[in-house]
Every structure is written in structure tokens, then in C-alpha cells.
Amino acid sequence: MALPPGMLPEIEPVSRESTAAVIARQLRDAIMTGALPPGTQLGETELAARFQVSRGPLREAMQHLVSEGLLRSERHRGLFVIDLEPGDVYDIYAARSAIERAAMLRALRGGDRDRIADLLERTVAEMATAASEDDPSALSTADLKFHEALINASGSKRLVRMARTLLIETRMCLTALQSTYQRVEERVDEHTKLIQALREGDEETALTLLEAHMEDAVQRLAPGTSLKDGHAPPVPGNV
Amino acid sequence: MALPPGMLPEIEPVSRESTAAVIARQLRDAIMTGALPPGTQLGETELAARFQVSRGPLREAMQHLVSEGLLRSERHRGLFVIDLEPGDVYDIYAARSAIERAAMLRALRGGDRDRIADLLERTVAEMATAASEDDPSALSTADLKFHEALINASGSKRLVRMARTLLIETRMCLTALQSTYQRVEERVDEHTKLIQALREGDEETALTLLEAHMEDAVQRLAPGTSLKDGHAPPVPGNV
DNA sequence: CCCTCTAGGATTGTCGACAATTTGCGTCCC
DNA sequence: GGGACGCAAATTGTCGACAATCCTAGAGGG
Questions:
Q1: How close A130 gets to chain B, by Cα (Å)?
Q2: Is B63–A68 a contact, with Cβ atoms under 8 angstroms apart?
Q3: Which residue among A37, A114, A120, B166 has its CA within the 20 to 30 Å range from the CA of B202?
Q4: Cβ contact (<8 Å) for B91 and A228?
Q5: A5-63 pLDDT, tens per residue?
Q6: How far apart are CA B99 and CA B209, in angstroms?
Q7: In angstroms, rounded to a whole number, what is the distance separating the alpha carbons of residues A25 and A51?
């Protein structure tokens, strides 16, 4: 009431996040970056000691990650970081393609194209910076930030919710197979073209580029696979 | 080892589901069918008594539903069943459209079209039965089963996971606005045509029909809205 | 009469201990 | 020596109690 509006714009309760949420985020990051490799068993007692909390909040965080699909729970056995099989790479990108296509459509038709395009260009700038500094990890992070921003821009709560796990899984893929063998200029360029099509409102081009972007990624991460097929591919290494 | 294969085909551990999972499923059903109307506050103590369990497993179930998006948690206040605003109807169907489009594509290209079509026809038969018995609740259930079957048939773990919440939310919409004002023959017919296009492998028709199916539903549940717009509509009642 | 402050009740958040279940290893019998 | 049985350690699942926080109602002052 007495406070003039515009001042103290971002005061928040001392602890706006629950303990479980903090733990979940830390674990998410650790899984995403590969600090907790796929297949790792997470002991509740051990983690509770490391985080200095009881097993209650920790279990809540774990359950959260389980329902997100990042952890797999075997009853009375333990919790394990999921390991991505080749079929999963296909599945992840097929799902991402569906989500991001919808997000792009809403961005295209939302009437805020220029604002969104500006937002996205900022993340591409981050990519360029990371590329010039030869920091592949930062490059991947910026790459994902682009797609996250696109989905956020769609304004759809549910697209955002569904994409969260997918993007983390994508990061896991990129971490596991760090040798992407793609020229960085090309990688930046694909995103730039995408923004341009969005800004111009060219639906056909934007959607086609997006599809190609996903297709490229799949073929790089899981050679011999194509999103155009309707099924998961045979395991390449075992033939 | 000594057991002849084919006998005792489905023995399972006495309790293959965790307590939290059982509770979560019960609550899901209650929310879906409207037994727990949107906005209801769920007291942990009260529910724990009703389920005859401690607050621990119950909290886990709740957290699960929160991360699925069916419950909303206000710190130190309580847990509430989400209430769907008009914009949410739009959002749900836009997301469903994206997911089911992808599922349909994979079904179309998966090479198992006839088997999938047969599966789907079974659910349409259920719809017809429910329609002939004038049971709108069973009709809605069968309707959702069709879409669930379609998504399951896609074989994508992630599409299935993401669709679970969406279908429950859809059921909430249908329960809240039971007066759908759509002729049942029409409702059955739309699904039949969808199956036919799938069986024939006609991608263009199948996708168009699916889109129209979603568009129809949105316009019925949230009049004046269209999926073709890229944004949530203004609230109809307040203008 | 209205606003403010305070005390009460109720609910969630957290913790430590106990019970149930699984796995691995050692022992015993064949 | 091979296999099955049984025990023990470790881990998860569950519980009840305590602490922190928030809403509400009522008294007091302006």
C-alpha cells in the first residue's frame, strides 16, 4: 500500500521454493550434465546425508524425478538414473518434434512474432559466444535454451510442462554423445534461419526447417534412424 | 524352471504396486469423474485417515499428482484440485492435438496399421454400446479409451507419458460440461472415419480428420475458440 | 465505526525410528 | 563338486510425533 509501485520489484518470501524442489533441481542438473551417469544407483540414506536433510523431503524429490521419467524406481531395490538406449533417442526427438511443432505454430499465429524472434535471437547470440570460446557444454546449454524459449513463448502451460523432461533428456543425449561432428556455424545457422522464418510468418518454411532440424539431430545421435519412419529402429550396434 | 510354460501365465508378486501408486490412482479416478470437484482442498490428515495409511505414502501420491498437473500445491496452505478455466480447455486440446497428431503419424508409418485399426474399432464398439444404452459417462470413457489406444499404439513411451495427464484433464472437461450437445452418431462416426483413413494409410485425410475432431471438441467446450488461433481466447462470459 | 495487532487453531513441513523386503554370501546336504 | 537352503546385511517402505508456518477470529485502540 505505502510502497510506491516500481520499487522493490522482486522481493520474494525468504524461501519460495520447497526443500524438495531445491533438491530435485540439483539432482536434475547433476543428471543432465552427466555428473550422475545413467545407471547410477541413488541411495536415499547417502543422499540425505549429502544434502543434510531427512529422508522425507529427499524421497519427495526423488518421486518427483521418477514421475518426470528421469529416474526409474525398482521396489525395494533402489532408484537408478535412467539409461538411454538408441530407441530412446529416436523417441525423444519424435516427441520433441511434436511439441516444438505445436509451439512454433502457436508462436507463428500468436501475433507476437517479432518479440519472440528477438527473444530467440538472444539465445542464438549465446550460442555464438559459446562457439567462439570453443565451449561445447555451453553451446549445448544455449542450444537447449533456444528451444526452451520457443516453447515458453508458445504460452502453453502444458507444452512447457511436457517439454521440461524432454529437454533434460536431450541434454543427456548430448552429454553422452558429445562428439556431435557438426560444424558450429551450421548449428547456429539452422537456428537463425528458423528465427527468420518465424519473424516473416512463413509457416511452411518454419515447420519444414524445424522438422529438418530434428531429423538432423536424430541422424547424428542415432545414425541410420529417421523420424520419417514410424517405428523405433533396430539397434545399430548389434547387427 | 520346472513349471511348464503357458501355465500360470500371469502370476505376479502379491503387491506389485506401491501404496502411493494405489492411492494416486484412486485420487486420479476421483478427480477425473468429478467425485472431487475442481477447487476442492485435500487435507492430508483427513485423506490419510480415509485411506488408512500414514501421511508419508499419501504425501508421495499427492506430490505425484502435483507434478502431473492435476493438483496444485500452495505452500503451507494445502493441496487443491485444479480448476480448469476456459483458457485451459483451449490449452488442453492444443496439446492433445500435437500429441495425437504425432501418434497418428507413427501409427500410419509403423506398418501395423490393420492391427491398430482393429484395436481402435473395439473401442468404437464400446462407444456404440454406451450410446445405445444412453450412458453419457460410459460414452466419454470409451471415447477417451479410443484416444488412449491410439497413443499407446504409437509405441512411444514419451507420448504415452505426456498424454496421460492430458486425457485425465479432458475427462474433467467432459465431466464439467456434460452437455456436449453433439449427436452420438456423429461422435461415433468421426472416430470410424479416422480408423478408415488409418487403415488405408491415407496420411493427409487422417491428420485432417484428427485436427477437425479436436477443433470440433474445442468449439463445443469453449465456444468462440479455435485451435487455428495461436493464443488463448478472451473469457467469453465477461465481455 | 474502522483499522491494527495479537492469540488461537489448523495445516503442512520435517525428522528419527521401526518394520518389511530384497540381495548376496556362507553353509549344509547330496 | 554342484546345487539348494537359510541367514544376515543393507536398502527401501511406513509410521507417529514435533516444529514451523499460515489463516482466522477477537480484543483493543484510534
A1: 31
A2: no
A3: B166
A4: no
A5: 445 444 455 567 888 999 999 999 999 888 999 999 999 999 999 999 999 999 999 99
A6: 15
A7: 12
User: Comparing A99-108, A144-153, B64-73, which segment has the lowest mean pLDDT?
Assistant: B64-73
Residues in chain A with CB shorter than 8 Å from the CB of B201 are none
Q: What is the pTM (predicted TM-score) of this model?
A: 0.89
Would you state the cell numbers that stand for residue A57, as one nine-digit string?
523431503
d(CA B156, CA A94): 9
Residue A225 in contact with residue A216, Cβ under 8 Å?
no
The beta strands (E) that lie in B5-50 are given as 41-42
| H or E element that contains B73 | strand B71-74
CA dist A73 and A57 (Å) reads 17
* DSSP structural state of residue B71: E
Beta-carbon separation of A158 and B105 below 8 A: no
- Residue B171 phi/psi, 5° resolution? -60, -35
Q: State which protein residues have CB closer than 7 Å to strand C.
A: A 18-20, 53-57, 60, 75-77; B 13, 15, 41-45, 55-56, 59, 73, 75-79
- Packing angle between helix A203-221 and helix A86-109, nearest 10 degrees? 160
By CA distance, what is B94's nearest residue in A?
A: A102
